[in-house]
Write a structure and sequence with these properties.
By secondary structure, the chain is α+β, with helices and mostly antiparallel strands. It contains 4 helices and 4 strands, in the order E-E-E-H-H-E-H-H. It has one domain.
């Protein structure tokens, strides 16, 4: 079975957020590291993204293996890559509704993650 090397090294993303300084709201801008390994591992644990219990088991085991990885590269076989892409497809295609805690994957924050995962095998 063919394997793929998923790059888990952190990358920087731009941020813009309001913070309180001296009792005043201040707009902060800058760059911060994006913890790709933790993000992927958490994605694979989101309820409702799998079609059945077997797929859920496989996704949770993959999440556990990624969390335990100490390297910047993680080897995925074809089935694991297919599972990861399917989970991300669901998260990319869902409605974006931050008020209910539902965030669709996309935009500058997730751009590099999407390129790394969906670029494998191409």
């Amino acid at each position: 079975m063919k394997t793929y090397d998923l790059d888990l090294s952190e990358y920087e993303v731009d941020f813009e957020r309001w913070e309180i300084e001296d009792e005043k709201r201040v707009l902060k801008k800058g760059k911060e590291p994006f913890p790709i390994k933790e993000e992927i591992a958490e994605m694979l644990r989101i309820p409702g993204i799998y079609k059945d219990g077997v797929e859920s088991f496989d996704g949770l085991m993959l999440s556990k293996e990624i969390r335990a990885c100490d390297e910047d590269t993680f080897k995925l076989n074809e089935d694991e890559l297919k599972l990861l892409k399917a989970a991300m497809d669901k998260l990319i295609g869902r409605d974006h509704n931050p008020a209910s805690g539902q965030i669709a994957l996309g935009g500058p924050r997730y751009e590099e993650l999407i390129l790394r995962v969906f670029g494998l095998g191409r």
